[in-house]
# Entry
Amino acid sequence: MRTLKIILLIITLTFISISCSGEKLEQKGSPEYMSEIDQWHQKRVDRLKDENGWLTLVGLHWLEEGENTFGSDKNNSIVFPENAPNKIGNITLKDSVITLKVKNGVNVTSEGSQVKNIKLKEDITGDPTILDVGSLKWYIIKRGKRYGIRLRDTKHPLRDTFDGIERFPVNEDWKVTATVDKYDPPKMISLPTQIGTIEEESSPGAVVFEKDGNTYRIDAVDRGKRLWLIFADETSGEETYGAGRYLYIDAPDSTGTTIVDFNLAYNPPCVFTKFATCAFPPKQNFLEIRITAGEKNWGKLQ
# Structure
């Protein structure tokens, strides 16, 4: 019986080490590199679990033009979770100007100070007005022409139960040198989103790299000193999230080269919450290659 258990364990471990395509995946790289990637991943997990991380989202509520009452009472225009006051007040949207009026007796604060009537700044300004009541925090987001409330609960139980994200074995072979094929002028690329809209982003060029004798291109999104890559590959929908993954890289140097480290590829926030507004890859960023590096799918959507 003991021998049988040992045999079954060996079979199980062998199966785990083999990917869906039958290829055996092993760690590869210097101890320093392995440590660097592990530290990056731990910081990534810590950010997710932070009170401002994606794991705390509990609501996304779009505003209607005019007055929007809100609170936990079901008769409000916008219904907050049960741990919110029944009627917090109202948020008025008029010609892109958003104002908050708090109901008497309700303690809503912003930056530690109680507020009653206040004009709200949205996230596109880079300095949104953040409001608190109890363990709930919220602010206004703008997506296209729509305005909404992004709501967090700093006491969300997922912060304590989150057990990390499975990854492919770290393999330094997936850290590749790439060139940037510049677009002159930069071109606009269309990114579909989780909320059914299309985001138009400026692409300064395509990141071009070679792997196993083949050449691949990813249209990058301009983020100043960095480039944002939104891509899908032949692991998407199997080992990894079906709508693709994200990766940030440095802008090219004076020779037009940069480093793409797919071990740092990570899941978009909509993997962890239905209240995100993720952008997905454009069609040209679907790659005919299995990128067996970076984060795998999480699959515990709240």
About this structure: The radius of gyration is 23 Å. Residues 27-51+163-285 form one domain. Helices lie at 2-16, 31-49, 158-161.
